[in-house]
Design goal:
The structure is a single chain. The chain is of the alpha+beta class. About 30% of the residues lie in helices and about 20% in strands. Strands 25-22-32-29-30-31-40 form a 7-stranded mixed beta sheet, with helices on both faces. Strands 26, 27, 28, 33, 34 and 35 form a 6-stranded mixed beta sheet that branches. A 5-stranded mixed beta sheet has the order 2-1-5-3-4.
Amino acid sequence: MADCVELVFFVNGRKIVEKDVDPETTLLHYLRKKLCLTGVKLACGEGGCGACTVMVSRYDHKNKKIIHYTVNACLARLCAMHGLAVTTVEGIGSIKNGLHPIQDRIAKSYGSQCGFCTPGIVMSMYTLIRNNSSPTTEQMETALEGNLCRCTGYRPILEGFKTFSKEYCGLGEKCCKNSTQPCEKMKGDCKDFIPLDSSQDPIFPPELQHSGKFDRESLKFIGERTKWFRPVTLQELLLLKTVYPDARLVVGNTEVGIEMQQKNMHYPVLVCTTNVPNLQRIEQMEHGIGIKVGANVTIARLEHFLKNTVEKFSDHSTRVFTALIEMLRWFAGSQIRNMASVGGNVMTASPISDLNPLFMASRAVLEVASEIRGKRQIVMNEKFFKGYRQTALEPDEVLISVTIPFTCEDEYFYGYKQAHRKDDDIAIVNAGLRVLFENKSNTIADICLCFGGMAPVTVSAKNTCNKLVGRTWDEKLVTDVCQLLLEEIPLPHGSPGGMENFRSSLMLGFFYKFYLTVQIQLQKKLGLNEPKIPQSYRSAVLPYSRGPTQSSQYFKDADDEQPSVDAVGRPIPHESAVKQTTGEAIFVDDMPEYRDELYLSLVVNIPGEKRWGYTYLDEDIFAIDVVSCQGQIIGAVIADTKQHAQRAAKAVEVTYDEEEPILTIKQAIKQHSFYEPNHSIKCGDLTSGFHKASHVLDGEISIGGQEHFYMETQVSLAIPKEDNEIEMFVASQNPAQEQELVAAALGIPSNKVLIRVKRMGGGFGGKELRASLLSLPVAIAANKLQVPVRCMVDRDEDMITFGGRHPFLGQYRVGCSAEGKIIALEVDLYCNAGNSRNSSNGVNDRALFHIDNSYKIPNLHVTAHQCKTNIPSNTAFRGYGAPQSMFVMEAIISEIASSLKIPPEQVRKINFYQEGDHTHYNQELTQLNIRRCWEECEGNSDFHTRRKMVDMFNSENRWRKRGLSIVPTKFGIDFTLLHFNQTSVLVHIYKDGSVLLALGGTEMGQGLYTKMIQVATRVLGVPMSKIHISETSTATVGNAAPTAASSGSDLNGMAVMFACQTLKKRLEPYISAKPKDSWEDWVKAAYFDRVHLSATGFYKTPDIGYSFQTGTGKAYSYFTVGVACSEVEIDCLTGDHQVLRTDIVMDVGKSLNPAIDVGQIEGAFMQGYGLFILEQIKVSPSGCMLTRGPGAYKIPSLGNIPREFNVSLLKESENDRAVYSSKGIGEPPLFLASSIFFAVKDAIQSARSDAGHGSQFCFHSPATPERIRMACKDQFTEMFSDAPEGSYVPWFVNL
């Protein structure tokens, strides 16, 4: 093949020509490091989060049109960009040159908080708009499926983008978008948005449009370790495969890219097949055989072609295509669908491939070829997969095409899939099921049942199918098939992947759905009356349908008489929102490289430098002698580039003498492995209380841990300065701690350590105490080498090293009256602390304080234990132990209700605190609006009417159930560690009248900077445009408390108010003397009169401080309360679920910024949804983290938003304990997501009742599909039994 070694492509209209291209270089790396386009973010490195989304455009010379599509730049190889045009967020709009309407609308709609994910979301939407200027809401949601956001809860993003749709204005075909006339009806703030104007979009490079030479050029690039070839003919491809039989073929690089980056795999030769015409074709074959799909055809293109084909042919002939369309609907995100190919999906031979079970069941025909043997055809049957990731192809053979057949009238075909999350997730189990009947009968002529996720390969139940031929399609068939399938496809306990009983039950459930679906159609077609399918069974076969998302937000805006410059109480977008939408907001790793800068890579699991810790010095910077968990840092490698540093770090070999680890809470209890101290709180008389109780229940409940999954991973940059000084840019919520620990590690005073924090891409507590794990090695390296050193850890490193939310176990005994009034409660709380104490003591203390949630319990004894285990130390996380503790309480409430056979909401109401009550730690409750929130939420949600509707639905449906739950929360505001309840600020007024605020608090997306500017406007009487916050720095504000505990606005707000009041008082004489002058005049007059125009503000929360030794003192300044009502629907056969509606009423006092507070409520709620429903941390029995990226660990996505999501801020609420009567809001709403968990439990109880089982059952959090399905006891689950503990080695353990 002729070699072209020059890479030519365009970026934002600029022509790029590169000659020395390393095939291992990703497009993301090149854009960020070579072109300095840092709006493209690295957040996961495996195409699972969308932060790196860019638009790629190419010219289709055959059809004479430009094609735009999104790709994950973290997976796309730079070599693959030849002849293409790349557009990044910087290329569509900027602050200087003007925003694109997409950037404008997401900013104005409050759709950007931390902003790290925003550029990727903007580019996903931009690409959709380039292809379709008026998309439907469904198309928008589909386009955004590959983008994750951990802050907003997605609702404001979608609401902002809905303004581009015809549905938004409600005029349908009369919409102004269908005419050239100006809009006569503006909905909401539509008139304030920048109008969409396609003439302002960047043009496609004419050079690429006028010449097809780039498509016809064969490419060859040789890097440090890898050769890259791009043939342009089949002959070239086959020759390359003959010369390099072990070469990996790539199209979108979606599989190989992950293997290279996440699994440390190296492929010396890569062959890109994208430009081989034979592999690109997709066509209908003659004589009604089917469609022939080239191996290079992308998933997105296949889906589009299939949809068009289905419209052209009869329903019965396209049943395979229809099943494929439904399966592809849930295949990854749009970015992956645009890159991944059909051939790649087949040839990777993944046992959980979504397509292979369908191809196998349909008996698809593969055309393969080699240079030596020529072409041949292979029927994709049970013989095709030879073993794990092995196929029937010879090493030198190449897959050319896949022929997918039409179906006949008596043939039925369906596909099924169950994953942890509905959209953009890999399957747990999937299936392709086909049956052919004898002409116009229900006698089986042929049948094929194929499953993925049940073995190391996609399997066909051939023996089962052989025994079914000639059988009648009736109810007896179901029982026989289930027995036959379990015999033919057994899944022993300890099998890879775990969840053995669940996966087997899915196999049976899928067949049962298939049976019902076909039976219903047969009865309709053949007029059969028997066997009769009960009407209540028919919903089991309904396809998943989400419908449009609806939402509302109710809050009180500022009064009309409030001065226009006073921004307090106004719904103002985040002050950095615009910068974040354009990619101009700078995060640590976006900073340009310093001269001589080196890169550090951690060696996980060298003698130690120093010991450090939060409250105890019990952690090593580098492990000494003993490694107490997998993921522990034992050293670091410094090199000239990130790639070299990481390769070197992975090359380090460490020899261990392994010991049996303690991983779980129950293992720790059994082996008495605890940290001290174990605090407890007592009130009343337990003995007397239990004696008075008419009912006593014993039980236990557990809740799993949670990964922070902030979009920006841990990152530090250290620059050594003169005189032993060091300057550091750290993504930390706690700059003062970074300063103190770095100073101690380097042996210098704190005044020589400068910590600077501009912004963080999310924190959630994970950057409060654990950022030091990275900043200390980086500082040590920079100090020793005297050059700048940088490190931003990859997502997998972050997840295995830096810890997360503490798993909890609650063991309880509760006594209550016949009406459900709790009289006595004894609880032992156990948290899984990990291999160091870190924050566990404080987490347990807050758990102790929140065990009551919102209920008065006269006799209570609660003790908290810290379990010492061999997992990475867990740490602060939004809620800090309170959500786990309150969950234990609500589980107790649920059990009481089930035991007494009364509604749980009745038990909650009868136990509510009253105004003036005292908590179990003897704090009087004042200004407590929990009952007001409850009553308003009951009304807003129409709870009682919907309760009847849910009961009616459940009585009419056997295999789908709905549940409804209403749950309160009461969250104490302030640090439990007394000395943290203080902070300082510094305020400067410059001669031109501009104001600079310097805070001790940090900005991580929660809007602290925005709110503080709003506070300053009220005191100083100047508009927000005159006030600026540059960064948080230990040089301007020293000894600041961490930004945590929902106290950031309280502490900093009061300090800002005090400082500004001081300055306003100094200006008062000049204002009084010339009241008609301007602000600038007053400032200048004061300056020339030598008035000090800088002031500090200091605030410490008064009258707080609880002592566990004496049991006295006030634990919290006040409480933030709220109530949520959620309704869900579950699929009893698969464990799938959908949140139909959530209503929240939250007491935030008088909000400083209601839009930001609503955003915090929605974001916290969705993060709580992850905690209680989706997010499951899995660890191997040896302690290895198995869930270490978005592929294996699923946080909520856009598709998880409640179908209807309503948020109201309680009106007329006062709080005399915080700035301008506001309340802390960052953490309190998270627990309200437990309303979804208990709604799921409510639905399961209905399913169990139908099956004759009791409503009392142990249901732990998170409510994963496995737990939901297996709790719905029925004839299928009864076919399995749990293996005795210790009889096998499980694939993973629950911590």
